[in-house]
Fold these 2 entries.
Entry 1:
Amino acid sequence: MTTLTILLTTISVTILLVTGVVFIFFLSNIVNIQNIQYQQQIETTEVERLLLLHQISLESTRDGILILDDANQIIGFNQSFLKIWDFPESVIQSSTYQQLLRRAVKKLDNPKYYIRKLREINNHPEKQINAINDSIFFNDGRIFYTNYHTQKIDNHKVGRIWSFQDITYAGKNEFTVNNYHQFYDPLTNLPNRLSFKNSLIASLASTTQNHKLAVCILDLNRFKNINDNLGYSRGDKLLKIVADRIQENLNHGDIIARWGGDEFSLLLRKVSKIEDVIQIQERILAAFRKGFAIDNQHINLSISIGIAISPHHGINTDTLIKNADTALSCAKLQKANHYVIYHPDFNSQKSELFTLENDLYNALERGELKVYYQPQINSFSGEITQMEALLRWEHPEMGLISPSKFIPIAEETGLIIPISEWVLKTACLQNKKWQEYLNLPDLSIAVNLSTSQFQQSNLVNTIKKVLTETQLAPKHLELEITETVAMQDIELTRNTLHVLNKIGVEISIDDFGTGYSSLSYLKDIPVTSLKIDQSFVKNLLKGDSHTAITTAIIDLAHGLNLGVVAEGVETEEQFNWLKVMKCEVVQGYLFSHPLSAEEATRILKFYQPYKLESSYLAA
Ligand code: C2E
Ligand code: MG
Ligand code: MG
């Protein structure tokens, strides 16, 4: 060992201190010291004592350190370095620096990129004066921060130091406490936003033409309700389980980070075609469909995913994240458990949605929301037995807006609560008026309940209040919940529906057949009828499985002593077939479109069984 070595190891000690290594432990860590001679000669000379001290300090860090002299001779390293690179000590001792580099890059993901980078370092020695900081990705999924310093003394280059710091996962305890909080989320032990961005920057730098990457932002739908209903500690537990479930479905080397409260981000690094991304999303969605178990309770949770793929949707961090976020907004406004890949058109859609969101805040006050009514008809008697209340928004500039478009916004913003309460009250009041003024005492009204409305703790009180205020008998109110809403939290559904059943209101399962395949829940909840989803009715008699499914749902309802309603009946053929199959209630454009309160009143007043709406409206 030369004075130069001492000098360089001294410098490395400085680096270690700067990077937060707890130097104080060095004396108790006298293990794995490379040169056993130091111990034997410990008291001999001042130089040797210093050498020992420096070697010990080298070993007191978990970071890997490699020291070279100015002629690229390896003159120092620590055990962490050997462990990180999985090099036997004999290899270091028998290899030149160049041979070592060749061995090392083979262990990295995308070795060509690193070879280019090393060549660049060699060709531009001036760059080496400053530290080179980079993240490197091992092909086994580990990630390290690399620091490469050229050391100068009195303007003379004296050598170089490589250091490697593990930033893969905090669970591996590779971090000091400070680093941990800087880069990791303490709840899930996943990398945080900052860490994710760093990895993304590094991955983008190493992306080649055939090598794409995808950024995905995942959002748990209505996680707030989970916290509200189960409490924060169970909510936290669920977040951890969710993180594990997502991680299980990624490929080796992909990164998952906690993006925020109930949001995660993914960096998919092994992407050669779009199908690779889709495959992972399908796996994640399938994993969510299984539901989650918390303290013996089964919870259904849905997820929305927005995806941006580099280079198509951006070549820098901010653009990719922004575009993945835009795609997420679109996914959230569609159905639950859904992923959307970014498209440039989304930006204009997003601004339209933003306008809608803003306007929706005032829509109720300005009287722009209207309840429309669609008759439900008894197939055998031809009489209107019930009206379904369907919400409409008469936007001053955009015209009539479908609830499918603005109800997701209302759910996101929380506006669904006042809006739904208003719909419920308006519809009940209207039905009461029809019963009284048109002498239709048996007429009922069906009102749709949104997911968040159903999960509100004061739902039952609101319904009781509305029934009292409007004087409508509970048996004349039917609440429609979709199968997906019912299955979100089966325990909550069971409890809520039992209380509602006690009050005396009717309950139907809307869009039946499109949600979960498990039917056993039906025997546990007090449901009065099933509404066959219109997608089955639409394709009736087209010779495929839809006819078989419709038949099965009608039989199921009869077997369980439940009513059955076919939605979306548009043709005589469909209606005749449904009558033969003894589907007792039908609803659809064949009989009537949803109508304003005035039009609906006119229909009810002059209605004769099976006469189409147009003849009444024209009258
Ligand atoms: P839904 O409850 O399943 O309502 C049936 C939908 O099918 C309505 O669409 C209705 O206009 C449409 N429809 C009825 N007959 C036919 C037909 O013969 N052919 C076709 N193609 N469609 C037909 P709408 O009014 O656009 O409502 C869409 C969904 O929005 C509803 O589906 C319901 O889930 C939701 N929704 C509507 N009003 C409310 C509300 O007040 N609160 C909540 N939470 N959701 C609502
Ligand atoms: Mg409905
Ligand atoms: Mg429906």
Entry 2:
Amino acid sequence: MSFDTIIRGGTVATASDTFACDVGIRDGKITALGADLGAATEIVDASGLLVLPGGIDSHVHIAQPSGPGIVMADDFASATRSAAFGGNTMVLPFAMQQKGESLREVVKQYHAKAEGQCYIDVSFHLIIADASDAVLGQELPALVNDGYTSFKVFMTYEGLALSDMEMLKVMTVARETGALVMVHAENYDAIRFLTDRLEQAGKTEPKYHAASRPIPVEREATHRAISLAELIDVPIMIVHVSNREAMEEIARGRSRGLKIYGETCPQYLMLTEKDLEGLNMEGAKYVCSPPPRDKDSQAACWQGLQQGIFSLFSSDHCPFRYDDPQGKLLPKGKTSFRWVPNGIPGVETRLPILFSEGVSKGRITLNEFVALTSTNHAKTYGLYPKKGTIAVGADADIAIWDPKRKETISQSLMHGGTDYTPFEGIAVTGWPVSTMVRGKFVVRDGKLTGKLGGGDYISRDKSELAKPVHPEARIS
Ligand code: DUC
Ligand code: ZN
Ligand code: ZN
């Protein structure tokens, strides 16, 4: 058998094993693993390097409308380029519905934005903002059947927040169709109440963003989302969990036998609310929701990763430029943290941060790293075993890492559309040097080699993890 490419001499790691082995690739697929594989058009020397499944970042926002006068800093070209440099071979952005819009039309619009503009593979989650009978009865089930097998619901934000009644209806559709529901868990009324009070007291700087949505706001909504899911008997994914108390709600739900999954993100390991205290508008660089918390919350999120409460480590990449009135600097006439767009960039730094802080510092194993950043994303969102592993028959989506390379994260190393990184100055050990998507290098030895449009749209299966606990039981 001959190959297009053999990656030779590296150490391969999957979610379960680490072994010395060559990887034979033909027609974009891994076709052999072993020694002495024979001839290939190209031999890639990976001696001293790690050969890992490419990162899958299942929580990113790209080219999403973000309010009047605000523009997201990444389009599909810049976001997927940046992701590739960060060792990712696939991202899952959202196709976001706004009230009154047809979900099918929204999906078409996002396909038009992404078409021919991606360096790596993409697949869309849906955001359900309008839980009308037509959307829930017709559009959503049809879209799930067409491979859009996960959707996010918000418990907060003007125009996005669903009532408990709407959440129950959406969860019922998920149960009936086998889709997975992702939940943004924060209490809308509590945030509005606290925001009004802070503003009335003249507390308008970016640091008050954190005070406007403290831990109980997230804990209560997490508890409520889990209770609603329990009523319907539907698995849910609580996304971007920031603290111990919300995490404990997930653990308690699980101990009752519920399928409650959790995701956390780099900002909850590396940042705290103190970062929002920067002078003038500097703190706006760290405004995201839920906000970064405190040292105990960071420790809790590490425990959650180590103990499996969190199966996913995603970036929640939601990029806005800093030095820009269409980004983090407030437009004329807007003077409060209320108007700072929520979200920070992170698709390029997610993997080096977890590798360095997790693997290099001994908090997690290399195999846990692979699971948390790639394999579990594929399993959770209906992509496995085509994506998320190094195995014969899988897509040749591979990141080659230098585990010893030292870098200091800095904006000058980034390849996306923002003008800052919230992780500036963090020293890391371990760096992705090359990224290959379906057998073709997109980044090679730190240089862009992929072509715009080389990334494909990937339709997804229903996730095994989305099956109810009691599938045979009827919803009363
Ligand atoms: N939720 C997200 O998932 N991303 C950015 C902002 C938000 O509230
Ligand atoms: Zn969210
Ligand atoms: Zn998000």
